[in-house]
Each structure stands twice: as structure tokens, then as C-alpha cells.
Amino acid sequence: MKTQLTKYNSKLVLLIVFFLSSTIFPQQGWYNMNLSFGGEGIHFKDLNTGIISGYKTTNGGFTWNYTGFGGPMSFPGTSIGYATGGGLIFKTTNFGDNWIIQNNPTPENLSSIHFPDVNTGFACGGGGTLIKTTNGGNNWFIVEPINQSLKFAFYFSSVFFTDVQTGYIAGSKYAGDTSVFIKTTDGGVNWNVQRFTISNWGIFTSMFFINSSTGFIGSATHAYVLKTINGGANWNQVMIPTTNSIYSMFFPSASTGYASCFGGQILKSTNNGNNWFLQTTGTGSVLYSIFFINDLTGYCSGDNNTVLKTTDGGGPPIGITPISNEVPVDYMLKQNYPNPFNPTTNIEFSLPRSSFVRLVVFDMLGREVETLVNENLSASTFKADWNASNYPSGIYFYRLEVRQAGSSTNGFVESRKMILIK
User: What's residue 4's pLDDT?
Assistant: First the structure.
């Protein structure tokens, strides 16, 4: 009897330890929740209650119930929300427990939906489609933000309204030569259309506005985010450490923002979107949606049944980070800092023009121990991090090799020494 009680008590202790380790000591950075679903569309109304791709939780993600619908969502009220997927529009009045199909006046697929209040909403999608409701989705009607003879050439990827009067659309032509940013200040009666060459600005894939002045556009195949501080009248290119497509952007506060990308990448900014750095995710899945409840707690979902969660803002930056928007005068490789170091250090270098860059670490015998950078980078100043926790103390060398696009020979090569002391 005593032996059985001892075994029972041991199991009870293990259960308590597991519970405490997952609640009092939550996992750091981004971690995969290992769920049986993924996909697009996230919204949480508090730390416990949220919806991801048609599944709802009321206990912070410990358990999930299927609610019957998943896709891009907008919740203008605590329980009232709208969602779209394909050519369908849905409405809920009980935070996703039930969804009611609404009438869509267009046959086009809808890619984005946004409600600035519980009655007024917009949805956009293929064929230059934009629809609007002013009575909570009971009726929807077609709005023409672009010339009707031209609109079918465009795909609108994102719609965002900061109030019922002021709103924005981002999209691109199917032909792949022009992207557009479209703005209204009278609820969609009149629109101002800005056109951008895709070869310079990229294909507009996502958008987020903090307020009526400050907003961001994410693009495909270009190593930057576009930022405006005057409501879209002018845009500045902000360097980012990836050329992967950005699928979703979210700012839980004015200073802190996140973006989810192709290839399992998540970008973060902590200075109003002026600089961005990569975070470790542990996945290579396409990440379609990202949402944060506050600056630290957020979720990200994508294909291959991927749902990620963080409670500490996604953890520290990794890899390479652009640290300036100014174009340097010349190539430069700086001494690593700190030096000596244990076990992490950073290496700063500058590029006066777009180049293919390799930054490699060697040991005393000339053996290549780690490649920190091996990609095309735009003109800027960058900081690369090296974590040498897996290597012994000693002297190491790092070498920057740069060559211009279309060239097979290095145009700039420089090496420096650093010391690891453990």
C-alpha cells in the first residue's frame, strides 16, 4: 500500500512540476504549439480568449474548439466580428461561437476585411474589388476606388481604415508592373491613387496603420518595408534583413511592430518601424497571420499546421540587422564589439551599393567554422551577431567578401581578428 501511494505521489509531483513549468516559467521566444491546425486569421480579445483560423480558445491556448470558419478577421466590438475567405463574408455576435453568412455582391475572392466600427466595414480582393457596408453587414455594395475600365487588372491585398472616413488600400497589378496605394478621406466616396513601379517598390502584400499619419506596407521580393508619417503622401524605404515576402503586419503599440513572412521568418521593430530584425521561429512554414495582445504576448499562424506563440516579445534578434537608412560612402568592416567576448559579439559593416555579401568566421587553422551572412543586401550599414557558445576559447578571424551583382569576383575583401574568452 505504501509503495502504491509513493508511486501516486510521484506522478502527482510530476504533474505539478509540468504545470508550473508551463505557466509560471513559460517558454522563451517563439515556440510551436504543436496543434492540428494552422492557416490564416488571428484575433484575441484578451490573454485567454482568441480565434486562430476557425479554432477558439478561452484558456490562453491550452484547449481549442472548432467554430466552423477561418480567414482574415476584423473585430470592431468585444464580441462582434467579421471574417472573409474566398468569396464569402461571415459575421459573429458571440466571438466566434457562431458565424452567419452575409451577402457578397461580387463573385471575386476577398483577401482582407476591416471594420472601423461595428456598422461600417470594407472588404477587398481580386479584380480590383472593394465592397462596403454601413449597417453591420446586412447589406454590402460595390465601391469603385479605381477606374472601372482598369480595376480588373488589379489585386487588392489589404484594406485598413483608421476611422469611418479615412482608409487605405494596398495592391498590385496581375501583370506585375505596378503596385498601388489608394486613400480616401470621405468614407470611400473619393479616392486618391498612387502608382509605384514594382521593380523599385515591390508587390504590395500587407499593410498596417498605427494612426491616420503613420503606416506601413509590406512587399514581396524587396529587402525593405515602406513607411509613411504623413498619411501616405510620401513613403520611405526602411531596410529589413530579408527578401522574403511579408504576409502580415501588426503593431500592438506605436513603438513595437511585427511582420510574418515566407520561410518561417518573423521581423520585429522596437523603434516605430525605423529598424527591423529577425527572430528565431524554429519553422520554415509560410507564416500568413500575426497578432499581438500586447507588446509581449502574440500568436503567428501559417501552413503545415503551424501555430506559434510568444509571451516575451519573440525573444532576442538573430542574424543580421540593418542599423541605418543612410547610404554609406564606402565599404567598411569594423572591429567586432565587445572584443574579447563571451559568448556573443556583433560585427558591423557598411555597403555603399547593393551587393552579394559573405561574412565568414574562421579558426586559427583557417578552417571555416560559421557563415554569418551569405546573401544579397541593399546599400546600408548592418550588424551581424555571432553566438560562439558552441566553440572553445581562442583566437578567431572574420572576413567580409563583397561582389557586385553580375560579377564572379570579389570587389571588397577585409579580415579582422577577435578573441573568445570563456
Answer: 44
